[in-house]
Each structure stands twice: as C-alpha cells, then as structure tokens.
Amino acid sequence: SDVRVIVRDISGKYSWDGKVLYGPLEGCLAPSSRNPAFLISGWQPQALGAQKDFSQIEEGDDVLDKLLENIGHTSPECLLPSQLNLNEPSPPPRGMNRDQEKEIIEVILRQNAQEDNYIQRCNSDSAMKITSQEQPSPVEPRGPFYFCRLLL
C-alpha cells in the first residue's frame, strides 16, 4: 500500500513528500496494481496516472522543484491560499520591492561566502585543530542498589 506523508513548515511555504524518500527495495518487484485499498470520499483517482518516478529524473533537473510541482497537481489541498504553485517563489512581503529583496539575498550570499572562508581558514590553521580523542571505556557500576532501578 502507498503511504504519503507531507511535511510543511508553519508558513506552509515549503513541503516535502515522504513517498519519494521510501521506495521498494532493490530487486523487489513493485506492486503491479495501482488500485487504492480504501476509498476516500471526494477523492478522484485521476491523480494516480500523473504520478512521476523521481528516480528517473535527469541530473540537470531540480528534483525538489519537480516534486513541489507534482504535489501541487496531485494534492491541491496543499496549495497556499494564494493558489500559487508550491514551486513558484512567493511574492515579497508588503512594503518591500524586488530590488530590496535582491539586496537582502546578496547580503545573505555574501555572509555565507564569508562564513565559508572563515571555516576554511580555521580548518587550515593548526592551532585550531584538536588532537583525536578515544572513546572512554565503560565502567561497571559499583553502587549497592544500582541494579534495583532496572526493576522499576
């Protein structure tokens, strides 16, 4: 049977379809029938034919973009109230124009590059490296009533 888990953040902007994460084991045959084992009132089976196999997507394609597009087509209840597709960028907040949004994105990307440079410098600095540590060996408990708590 197919199990579908859709995870969304509090704003509903980002989602992930759990069916893509789990598939049949390698070498196992997938079930040939696509008939649902149960009926949902108001559910239309036309969406079953439109399902895509995301393992067959070419390397240059954006899998998340295709997934969000597919979720919008197969599960319209997941769409935002504005009826924008899940793979379309949301409009900028009120009071902010596209130029301000681009500036904010540039600042974030610049900060990300600075953080990457800092991490590279720290990784190459020998003073920042620590010596490898061994995992401590387990110690037998010595308390007289230590094993009594396991009975609870």
UniProtKB/TrEMBL annotation:
GO terms for molecular function: GTPase activator activity. Residues 79-98 are annotated as: Disordered. GO terms for cellular component: cytoplasm; nucleus. It comes from the Eukaryota. Signal peptide: none annotated. PANTHER family: RAL GTPASE-ACTIVATING PROTEIN SUBUNIT ALPHA-2, TUBERIN. This is GTPase activating Rap/RanGAP domain-like 1 isoform 2. It comes from Mustela putorius furo.
